Amino acid sequence: MLERLALRLTALAERYMPDAFVFALAATLLTVLAAFVVDPAVREEPQRVVLAWGNGFWELSKFTLQMSMIIIGGYVLASSPPIARLITWLAAKPRTGPGAIATVALAAMLTSLFNWGFSLIFSALFAKAVARRLQGVDYRALGAASFLGLGTVWAQGLSGSAALQMASVTSMPKALAETIGAIPLSETIFRWQSLVCVSVEVVVVTLVVYFAAPRIGQDARALGVDLGEEARPADPPAATPGERWERSPWMLQSVVALGFAYLALSISSRAATLVDGLNALDVNTLNLVLLLLGAALHRTPAAFMHAVKSATPAVWGVLLQFPFYAGISGIMTGTTLSHAMANLFVNASSAGAYPALVTIYSAVLGVFVPSGGSKWVIEAPYVLGAAKSLGVPAGWMVVTYDLGEAVANLVQPFWMLPILALLGLKARDVIGHTFLVAVILFPLILVLVTVLRP
């Protein structure tokens, strides 16, 4: 039944689903319309919504660069020779199409707990390696499986944006720092309720994609996708002194040592214990770790530069579309739309129902503003303020908000763009499979956040 449903949803998506950029444009126009409906000031002065959109358009430029660097760093690390050998070894293990798809999904979820950018690229390269070795495996389902880390548990891992922002008062608005204060990672992603949610999601999603996998599907060749070479060919011998410098590892590895020394000093100055060290992590630190690990594993400047160059096609969608989503965020915060949506879920709640309502709220907003957690800074005062008055732990609200934020990615194609670029697919090719996972997973999440509420 799940297999037939997945194929039907995929067929509908392939026929009616536009490209992700069209989705961004439609979301922009819908948000403008909603602002007119909700905000009387906008109806009186329509230029307000225009100015709010323009003022917000470049507001997340720094965050856009950080997200792009996560993708590039993840690609550099995932494409390094040791990781490439690991992918090749893993790709030879599955023997059936459903088993291969479930294995890719499991790898995507587990690696996303380390870093979502690494997970995106590792899982896409893993899916391509499986497609080269296993004839007849459905390439669309493989592509969808490689994205499931971003649609399930990534925000409960070490690169979860909201948890990292709340771990340090320097990453949050002044008013929030004064009223709520820092929330350590031990109260968010490392609390036992969060770990239970992650474990349940991983098991359920793996089973769903296994039983929904097409037994006889369209492989990459049937879709007209060129899987390319399995590995980068070796460089020819250096012909000039300049090329010998590029292929000598000592300068790059010296800088890598410098970088790791900085990380050790920086983290140790802010942390006395391992938990404190985890609480000291932020987006820039994680990006530096990814780049340094990738540089260390690629060894030479030539190989490192080639990896970065190969990674850049995967970020074009982020660079194009993120400013438009920042514009949507600008409309929501520059009018009363954000307050109205927050009040819709917050004001009419009880302590028992509040976590589930916030999860719904986060998922709904995540469809319109797939910010990778950046919008949490805007919405945290409303969400955590109400949680405080209702007596719900602030750390648990970060967890429930993140669970909704992640599942929205299963129906919003924005964060699929890096994977789609690497796999040579369109959003319409995979959205049917991810939508099926969302239909099953979202009610389960609502039950979990209600039953496990501290």
Sheet having the most strands: none
Share of helical residues: over 70%
- Please, how many domains? 1
Instruction: Write down the secondary-structure element order.
Output: HHHHHHHHHHHHHHHHHHHHHHHH
**Count of β-strands:** 0
Poorly predicted segments: none
Distance between the termini: 37 Å
Number of helices: 24
- How does the helix and strand content classify structurally? mainly alpha
Backbone shape: globular
Mean pLDDT over the full residue set = 83
Oligomeric state as shown: single chain
**Radius of gyration (Å):** 22 Å
Task: Give the DSSP E fraction (strand runs of 2 or more residues).
Answer: under 5%
Topology:
Layout: H1 2-16, H2 20-38, H3 40-44, H4 47-57, H5 61-78, H6 81-91, H7 97-112, H8 116-133, H9 139-146, H10 161-166, H11 174-179, H12 192-212, H13 241-246, H14 250-270, H15 274-279, H16 283-298, H17 301-311, H18 316-334, H19 337-346, H20 354-368, H21 376-390, H22 394-408, H23 417-423, H24 427-451
Describe this structure in words.
Helix content is 70%, strand content 0%. With 454 residues, it is an all-alpha fold. It has one domain (2-225, 246-451). It is globular. The two termini are 37 Å apart. The model has no long low-confidence stretch (mean pLDDT 83).
Label this structure with key terms.
454 residues, 24 helices, mainly alpha
Give a short overview.
By secondary structure, this protein is mainly α. The protein has helices at residues 2-16, 20-38, 40-44, 47-57, 61-78, 81-91, 97-112, 116-133, 139-146, 161-166, 174-179, 192-212, 241-246, 250-270, 274-279, 283-298, 301-311, 316-334, 337-346, 354-368, 376-390, 394-408, 417-423, 427-451. The model has no long low-confidence stretch (mean pLDDT 83).
